[in-house]
Design goal:
With about 425 residues, the protein is of the alpha/beta class. It contains 18 helices and 14 strands. Bound molecules: uridine-5'-diphosphate-xylopyranose. The site of uridine-5'-diphosphate-xylopyranose has 19 residues, from helix 9.
Length: about 425
């Protein structure tokens, strides 16, 4: 099938490459000429494991192309995916201007009946608005289908190729079936429903996952007060299949481009209907506080952080990504700098992106270098590089052996035996 994908960000580029790998001929469109030129040379602008190879393979086999000419791509394709950004507006709602711009372009260039697939995360009711906008300009019938993405950064290719489920929201049976057939090779559960339900499934899923994280973080804070170990509590809870073990890892809060944005967006959707989502509101408040828990522990350990050398291990909002959006490290670093600490950060991939956001901190390539004369280490992002460190060597380098394990990944007993004072989150 000839497919156009408009938007070559995390979602658009991954969707385009994967749809090409499933045998479709895909043309990826972006307004950014530099980005398109780089993609044509096989240069991938985002760090996503497996994506570079996938794009290269499908470019070699002439199944994926890149262009800035959206009109041509639309004319030549039967199915057009909208995968442009829907950033958070000032009032928390999703900013749909890019989605509507693409819709208008499709309307003006539809030279035959088309199927538009909305993959961008959009408020409930957007697909109907997109169709109205398209049909204002199009002489041909254009159906719009909602097909939300459930891709996690750092595993987006795998999440596309091996999804738990595909959700399709369609008003036209024929359009729903055409998109169903597109995903049939994935042999996974495919739910065909209405556009409104499909759009709400996306927000409700992310809000629930975020709520699960804030819930376990609150239980972690309680665990400390009652002398329990949150890792044990989470293990015991997760053995109940109704709860499940995933997304029960307590830590210093969630970040990223999706959870914070979608948690705000679903609250706005509800507020607009005069129905406040009190649990989701609490999820957001708990998360904001949780990000600063590592700093509170350092404040408990040191009467003043002024002049103290604090090493931050990890800056990205999670491992295997260079993405710094809403990363817990931002709140932690800013709070430490505000208290006069000398912060040195180590991150294998996100360092360049972090430099654009985090001012007043130093950076190092090596944990062992950074540990020299350090008063404390804070593990913020659980990169594999930080999981098997030589703490015996680190202990010799540090001025005081304080470690705050912001993601509960270290062996507390082993660190204590090496002379560290260990602070976990909930243990
Ligand atoms: C999320 C959703 O998982 C995905 O389905 C959706 O399409 C996009 O948003 P992503 O934001 O890329 O994906 O990362 P995810 O792996 O979900 O982690 C989000 C944040 O939650 C990270 O900061 C992570 O550190 C934190 N997290 C995750 C926890 O604190 N505890 C957990 O148990 C899991």
């Amino acid at each position: 099938m000839k497919i156009a994908v408009v938007g070559t960000g995390y979602v658009g580029l991954v969707a385009g490459a994967c749809l090409a790998d499933l045998g479709n001929e895909v043309i990826c469109v972006d307004v950014d000429e530099k980005k398109i030129a780089a993609l044509r040379q096989g240069k991938i602008p985002i760090y996503e494991p497996g994506l570079e190879e996938l794009v290269a393979k499908n470019a070699r086999e002439k199944r994926i192309f890149f262009t800035v000419d959206s009109a041509k791509a639309i004319r030549e394709s039967r199915i057009i995916f909208i995968a442009v950004g829907t950033p958070q507006g000032k009032d928390g709602s999703a900013d749909l201007k890019h989605v509507f711009q693409v819709a208008e372009t499709i309307g003006r260039n539809a030279n035959e009946p088309k199927i538009v697939v909305d993959k961008s995360t959009v408020p409930v009711g957007t697909s109907r608005k997109v169709r109205e906008l398209i049909m204002k300009h199009s002489k041909h019938n254009v159906e719009v289908v909602s097909n939300p993405e459930f891709l996690r950064e750092g595993s987006a290719v795998r999440d596309f190729m091996e999804p738990d489920r595909v959700v399709i929201g369609a008003t036209s049976e024929e359009a729903g079936k055409a998109i169903y057939d597109l995903y049939r090779p994935l042999e996974c559960g495919i739910l065909v429903t209405t556009p409104e339900s499909a759009e709400l499934i996306k927000y409700a899923s992310n809000a629930f996952l975020a709520t699960k994280i804030s819930f376990i973080n609150e239980i972690a804070n309680l665990s400390e007060l009652v002398g329990a170990d949150i890792n044990e509590v989470a293990k015991g809870m997760g053995l109940d299949v109704r709860i499940g073990k995933h997304f029960l890892n307590a830590g210093c809060g969630y970040g990223g481009s999706c959870f914070p944005k979608d948690v705000q967006a679903i609250q706005k959707i509800a507020k607009d209907k005069n129905y406040p989502l009190e649990i989701v509101e609490a999820t957001e408040k708990v998360n904001a506080r949780q990000k600063l828990v590592p700093v509170q522990k350092l404040n408990k350990e040191f009467s003043s952080l002024k002049g103290k050398k604090i090493v931050l291990l990890g800056l990205a909002f999670k491992p295997n990504t260079d993405d710094m959006r809403e990363a817990s490290s931002i709140e932690i670093a800013n709070a430490l700098v505000k208290q006069g600490a000398a912060v040195v950060a180590v991150d294998p991939i996100a360092r360049e992106n972090a430099k654009k956001i985090l001012k007043g901190i130093a950076y190092s390539d090596s944990v062992y270098e950074a540990a020299k004369g350090a008063d404390a280490i804070v593990l913020v992002t659980e990169w594999n590089e930080f999981l098997e460190l030589d703490f015996e060597k680190i202990a010799k380098e540090m001025k005081s052996k304080i470690i705050v394990d912001g993601r509960n990944v270290y062996d507390r007993e082993k660190l204590i035996s090496l002379g560290f004072k260990y602070y976990g989150i909930g243990r």
